[in-house]
């Protein structure tokens, strides 16, 4: 994948393991799904597979992944199709710009230039055909509660959806979760996402 300096200048390419070992800045694609039902705004989250090396079993961005050296941000929609089985046209996405953040956990140094997009959708959970090596389920939360959780106004929220259990069956998922159940991106990242989505909701 392509690697960058702190000023976002491209400086070459490197394999993924080296990128995370040495802490190179690199490009990713993030796509957050939102929707409205009966006047209530929702945000969709994936449950990361228990087989994932990084952050197994935690709630995360609806769909996300690394951009290869040969790809542009337009190619990022392949992540949505691969992980969730949903065909999304890039032209249907709202851009929240590039958000950079850095997280270090043990030997993992993750410095991302995240190209962040929002997909305002009308989907049912039956529409998702997830890639179980990457994702074990999809849930949604009321966007207001999600916002209040990450802005420090709530300690816990409810998420509802489905997951694929160990025998491959699709089962309902309804739990109360806290920040500890999420991939702990920097608070500034979540705050930027919330601000951007609020603007999209107000404009829609």
Descriptive account of the structure:
The protein is an alpha+beta fold. It has a single domain (2-203), classed as Alpha-Beta Complex (Nucleoside Triphosphate Pyrophosphohydrolase). The chain has helices spanning 16-22, 77-84, 143-150, 187-203, and strands at residues 2-4, 10-13, 25-37, 40-48, 59-60, 63-66, 94-105, 108-120, 135-142, 157-164, 170-177. Strands 1, 2, 3, 4, 5, 6, 7, 8, 9, 10 and 11 form an 11-stranded mixed sheet that branches. A hairpin with a 5-residue loop joins strand 1 and strand 2. The model has no long low-confidence stretch (mean pLDDT 94).
Short recap of the structure:
This protein is α+β, with helices and mostly antiparallel strands and 204 residues long. The protein is built from four helices and eleven strands, in the order ββαββββαβββαββα. It is globular, with a radius of gyration of 16 Å.
């Amino acid at each position: 994948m392509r690697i960058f300096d702190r000023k976002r200048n491209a400086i070459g390419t490197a394999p993924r393991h080296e990128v995370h070992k040495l802490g190179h800045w690199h490009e990713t694609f993030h796509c957050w799904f939102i929707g409205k039902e009966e006047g209530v705004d929702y945000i969709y989250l994936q449950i990361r597979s228990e087989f994932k090396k990084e952050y197994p079993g935690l709630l995360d961005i609806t769909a996300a992944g690394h951009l290869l050296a040969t790809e542009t941000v337009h190619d990022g929609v392949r992540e949505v199709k691969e992980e969730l089985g949903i065909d999304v046209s890039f032209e249907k996405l709202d851009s929240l710009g590039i958000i950079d953040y850095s997280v270090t956990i043990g030997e993992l140094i993750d410095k991302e230039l995240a190209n962040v997009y929002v997909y305002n959708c009308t989907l049912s959970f039956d529409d998702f055909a997830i890639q179980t090596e990457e994702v074990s389920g999809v849930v949604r939360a009321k966007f207001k509660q999600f916002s209040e959780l990450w802005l420090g106004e709530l300690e816990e929220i409810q998420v509802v959806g489905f997951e694929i259990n160990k025998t491959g069956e699709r089962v309902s998922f309804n739990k109360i979760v806290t920040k500890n159940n999420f991939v702990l991106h920097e608070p500034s990242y979540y705050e930027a996402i919330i601000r951007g989505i609020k603007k999209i909701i107000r404009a829609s």
